[in-house]
């Protein structure tokens, strides 16, 4: 492939994978949402997650591929963290800057070279990159990063047990039920209610008319946890 055709193909890929289009297409795949607290625990070379531009990626296969390369060190140093500052929010591509010596627009790798990024100065080692760089490659995507984590109180009306868990504002009640299973393996045997209303498990908290009141509390100079909405679980006498 000659250089002109290669650049045209690269531009097509970038246009197709801009953050806006990318986010819409990913939402249509019903990918799970993750809390920052869930991403941060995956911070080793054997289990490396990162988030950027509201998307969570598992880069463990990339770590294995570049195991002996110094290029992987910046990613390992930021494992479990959000690295959105590495990328252009408008294009989704890695950030660029004008090199002070050559005057050429080159990738800005503030923590050192990373995989799929060429050398920044004229060199005999330079060669065109063919393929999709890892930050555009959908094979690493495992979910989306929540826009707003929120706490919810869940009370078992049979035993009186009460737990406060952190969830994603985009989570359906089914997803919240999965998170709550660590406290009650039989949560599917309960009817979930808020006040007197039975919850639709396919909908989110907001869609079930359970608003997040933290922003109103902030306006009134009250602490975020001044009040936490409570979901009530009523036993159905059906252990499943």
TrEMBL record:
Keywords annotated in UniProt: Heme, Iron, Metal-binding
Keyword Metal-binding part of the UniProt annotation: yes
InterPro entries listed in its UniProt record: Cyt_B5-like_heme/steroid_sf (IPR036400), Cytochrome_b5_domain (IPR052320)
Molecular-function GO terms, alphabetical: metal ion binding
Protein family per UniProt: Belongs to the cytochrome b5 family.
Protein name in UniProt: Cytochrome b5 heme-binding domain-containing protein
Naturally occurring in which organism (per UniProt): Clastoptera arizonana (Arizona spittle bug)
């Amino acid at each position: 492939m000659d250089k002109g055709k290669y650049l045209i193909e690269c531009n097509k890929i970038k246009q197709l994978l801009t953050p806006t289009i990318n986010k819409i297409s990913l939402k249509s795949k019903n990918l799970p949402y993750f809390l920052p607290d869930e991403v941060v625990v995956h911070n080793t070379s054997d289990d490396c997650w990162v988030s950027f531009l509201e998307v969570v990626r598992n880069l463990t296969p990339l770590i294995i591929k570049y195991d002996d390369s110094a290029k992987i060190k910046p990613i390992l140093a930021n494992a479990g963290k959000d690295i959105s500052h590495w990328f252009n929010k408008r294009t989704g591509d890695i950030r660029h800057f004008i090199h002070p010596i050559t005057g050429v627009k080159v990738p800005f790798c503030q923590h050192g070279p990373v995989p799929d990024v060429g050398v920044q100065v004229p060199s005999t080692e330079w060669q065109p990159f063919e393929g999709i760089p890892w930050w555009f490659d959908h094979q690493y995507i495992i979910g989306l990063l929540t826009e707003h984590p929120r706490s919810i109180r869940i009370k078992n009306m049979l035993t009186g047990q009460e737990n406060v868990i952190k969830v994603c504002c985009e989570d359906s009640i089914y997803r919240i039920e999965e998170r709550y299973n660590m406290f009650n393996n039989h949560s599917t045997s309960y009817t979930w209610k808020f006040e007197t209303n039975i919850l639709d498990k396919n909908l989110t908290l907001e869609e079930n008319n359970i608003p997040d009141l933290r922003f109103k509390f902030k306006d009134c100079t009250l602490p975020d946890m001044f009040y936490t909405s409570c979901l009530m679980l009523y036993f159905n006498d059906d252990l499943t």
